[in-house]
Amino acid sequence: TTGSSGGFVLAFLSAFEAGDRVALVSPGYPAYRNILSAVGIQVMDIETGPDTNFQPTPDLLDQALHGSPEPLDGLIIASPSNPTGTMIHTADFKALIGYCQDKGIRLISDEIYHGITYGRSAETVLAHMNDAIIINSFSKYFSMTGWRLGWMVVPEDLIRSIECLAQNLFISPPTLSQRASIKVFDCRKELDGYVARYAENRSLLLEQLPNAGFDKLASADGAFYIYADIANLTNDSQEFCNRMLAETGVAATPGVDFDPGRGHRYMRFSFAGELAVMAEAVDRLGRWRR
Ligand SMILES: Cc1ncc(COP(=O)(O)O)c(C=O)c1O
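# pyridoxal-5'-phosphate complex -> structure
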């Protein structure tokens, strides 16, 4: 696929009909919501917080569905997630899979941050069920974002329709990228080196951001993000991030991009850079907040 982004379009068009209902997690990667809406699929928000590691659980799904006459057709999960970096707890992971199997909900697992974790490694949904759609990409662990290359693992019954859709929408992902990506499998040492660098960046920020007033941080189990609750600093994350950028030169993303309802009191830091840059950034933030 042309990145995981191309995979989402193919997954949503092949697995759902216009008017179907798909649940996704808030805060979450905004393109899920935007692509689903663009193709006429209803979005059901599952609001999550630190109590469930910003991840869905069967209880949260039950609460969201309570009293609703319409069935739920799909659920999108990402563990680790963007923007929170959190992972689904092992027990909740199995329970969610069982829940989807029992209720005939098509599970779409965005596994783009697999390979970038700081503790336990991420488990693929494929190990537990074979009618899920798995989406992955060369953009994160493999650091080939601009090459626009991803892949999907799909159940047999969707293969033909995905093939037809792909031929009409994309023809194919770029041949040059496909050839280059074969070589990247020989670069594991270098790629694991990047993950080790993210791990150092993460430790530095988790230790020092609280000194700058950012002290309510999500667990950052994977990916390269730290999601901060900044209700103690602002109730307008967009304005706060604009001001922070103008006054310190440090850029972060306001939570409203990921959570339309509650994002005004959250922001996301990305630490996919050099350690020296992280140290300088957190230093500037500390001086700014003093
Ligand atoms: C969770 C998640 N999924 C998908 C994507 C899109 O990636 P790709 O470059 O593979 O289209 C991103 C990009 O930031 C992401 O964070």
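# post-check
The longest strand covers residues 21-26.
Residues 3-5, 29, 78, 82, 110, 112, 137, 139, 145, 150 surround pyridoxal-5'-phosphate (CB under 6 Å).
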